């Protein structure tokens, strides 16, 4: 509904759109390899974000990181 109202996809960055477009190229010779995709700026940013969250959670009061049971649960 947001996209229909605004003409823009909600919560989707240009980097993510570019990443997905590289994955969906029909011609296998033109499609990016897994190695290239892992070096894409979208994946690099996602990895850095994940590492930051793990460090933040592991330095919590408990002193150890506990995996959340749902997407709504956080370690903070």
Task: Describe, in plain words, how this protein is organized in 3D.
By secondary structure, the protein is mainly alpha-helical. The chain has one domain (2-58). It is 50% helix and 0% strand. It contains four helices and no strands. The chain is flat, with a radius of gyration of 17 Å. The model has no long low-confidence stretch (mean pLDDT 79).
Which labels suit this protein?
76 residues; Mitogen-activated protein kinase kinase 5
Succession of helices and strands: HHHH
Q: How many distinct folded domains?
A: 1
Through-space gap between termini: 32 Å
The total strand number stands at: 0
Radius of gyration: 17 Å
Number of helices: 4
Shape assignment:
flat
Residue-averaged pLDDT = 79
Strand content: under 5%
Instruction: Briefly note the structural class of the backbone.
Output: mainly alpha
> How would a crystallographer describe the biggest sheet?
none
The helix content is 40-55%
Stretches where pLDDT is under 50 for at least 5 consecutive residues are: none
Keywords: Kinase, Transferase
Protein name: Mitogen-activated protein kinase kinase 5
InterPro entries: Kinase-like_dom_sf (IPR011009), Plant_MAPKKK (IPR052751), Prot_kinase_dom (IPR000719)
GO molecular function: kinase activity
């Amino acid at each position: 509904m947001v996209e229909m109202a605004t003409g823009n996809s909600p919560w989707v960055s240009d980097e993510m759109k570019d990443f997905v477009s590289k994955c969906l190229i029909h011609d296998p010779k033109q499609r990016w390899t897994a190695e290239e995709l892992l070096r894409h700026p979208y994946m690099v940013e996602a990895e850095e974000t994940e590492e930051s969250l793990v460090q933040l959670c592991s330095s919590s009061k408990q002193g150890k990181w506990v995996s959340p049971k749902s997407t709504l649960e956080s370690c903070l």
